[in-house]
Amino acid sequence: MSLTNLLTVALLTTAFSAQAADPTAPMAAPDLVFDEVDGIVAVEAEHFYRQTLTEQRAWHITSSKSAPDMNPDADPPHVAGASGGAYLEILPDTRATHGDQLIAGENFSDKPGVMAVLHYKVNINTPGRYYVWVRSFSTGSEDNGVHLGLNGRWPESGQRWQTVQKQKWAWDCKQRTADVHTGVPMQLFLDIEKAGEHEILFSMREDGFEMDKFVLASNQEYTPEGTGPAVKAKAGQIPAPFPEVAKAAPLVLPRQPDGQGAVEISGELKEWHKVTLTLDGPYAHELDNAPNPFTDGKGMNVVSCLPYNAGGDGDNVWPFVARDDKCHWDCSKLDQWGMVFDHATAQGLYLHFKLQENEIDDDRRGDKSEPGRVPSRSTAASSATSASCIAGKSSRASVTRWR
Asked: 398 versus 350: which is more confidently predicted?
């Protein structure tokens, strides 16, 4: 292997390692130049070689391997269907709706080139006008705009890229104007007058904006489809893609009829007796994509865990080396809980923990308060502290101790 190839591998390895630790770090090496072929330049958004002006906001990489630990973030990851198994999002996202406070220079910038700027190198073989198509995912009214620049300049024709497509990865080439807030089609373009290497720039307009890929097209009649055309490089090495996550079908068929919204509690309504909670709501399936009440919004997106219930239903999940020894933790079990936390966090789920049930605190078991091998209060207190540290692995975890 030549010295040049070794250097390229070293740069890519360093960049990938940095990205794993810092989701705002570049994946691409500085020598990567994307190539225009037959009037088309395609670029994966996560393949920027540089990011600047990140004091207030920054572009974060979300992939099928990892999600940024950054709050607030108004919506769950949208890696399903993303080209190359990854995309970028401007975080934190403090203005998810029109009702949230607009703070110029923090969560909004109508002026291009002053916040969260991405840098890409492209080689243009055929100079001329290039229309800019961006593949984005918008979930609200305040996460659907961005600015574009060229070679350090921010022409009017590249400002206020806009989309109104929602809840899906979609291509658009529109410019927001004073008269048309939803965007004027094919009015967003960059005029590239000379052949050779140029720098394409993206800067924040609204936080929470999500970008998967962009295409420069010289043909005004061209429209990208699916995940867009193949990416081609003039120089350097394109980073390896992440495993792609297939987008689930919108709804699972056949559908059952929706319920009437009734809530019923049945069974023996006595303390420590089994009861059944019946929710007669809209029909849903865990594979539904849009909507999915199991993961969407602020509703049914909670995982409730009881990691320690000696002598009860959870007697096989406590993370200690033995039931009676709560001062020594089993690393293999902790690792298994860590997988649960990481998966739930990546899915945007809220984690709720009940560290102990009340019968454990007084050395008695069950509804009849029978004696049993249950740790003492002093040991249980140390358990609650340790478990709080574990739950802290999730940015959305909250810990509740029941008595």
From this structure: 350
Place of tokens 């949208």: 78
Q: For the whole model, what pTM was predicted?
A: 0.62
Q: How many domains does the chain have?
A: 2
Q: Report the alpha-carbon angle 218-223-227, nearest 5.
A: 110
**Are residues 163 and 308 both part of a single domain?**
no
Beta strands in 50-144 (DSSP E): 50-52, 58-63, 86-91, 117-124, 128-137
> Peptide bond before 254: cis, by omega within 30 degrees of 0?
yes
Radius of gyration (C-alpha) of the chain in whole angstroms: 26
Model pLDDT, residue 294: 61
For residue 80, how far is the Cα from the chain centroid? 10
Which one-letter DSSP state was computed for residue 367?
Answer: T
- Give the closest residue to 280 by CA, choosing from 253, 303, 260, 297: 260
Q: pLDDT tens across 161-176, in order? A: 999 999 899 999 999 9
Within a domain: residue 70? yes
Indicate the length of the chain as a whole number. Answer: 403
For residue 327, give its domain range. Answer: 301-400
pLDDT in tens, 260-278: 878 788 888 877 677 787 8
The two tokens of residue 313 are: 């239903």
- 205 and 316 co-located in one domain: no
Residues 225 and 342 both lie in one domain: no
187-207: average pLDDT: 98
Q: What is the dihedral of CA 207, 212, 218, 221, to 10 degrees?
A: -100
C-alpha span between 138 and 144 (Å, rounded): 6
Tokens 């000696």 correspond to what residue? Answer: 310
pLDDT band, residue 341 (cuts 50/70/90) = confident
- Domain end position, chosen among 217, 235, 253: 235
Q: Could you give the CA distance from residue 49 to residue 209 in angstroms, rounded to a whole number? A: 19
**pLDDT over 50 (residue 119):** yes
Query: Is residue 159's pLDDT more than 90?
Result: yes
Please tell me the least confidently modeled range out of 230-239, 242-251, 315-324. 315-324
Q: What is the CATH number of the domain that holds 94?
A: 2.60.120.260
Q: Residue 245 domain-assigned?
A: no
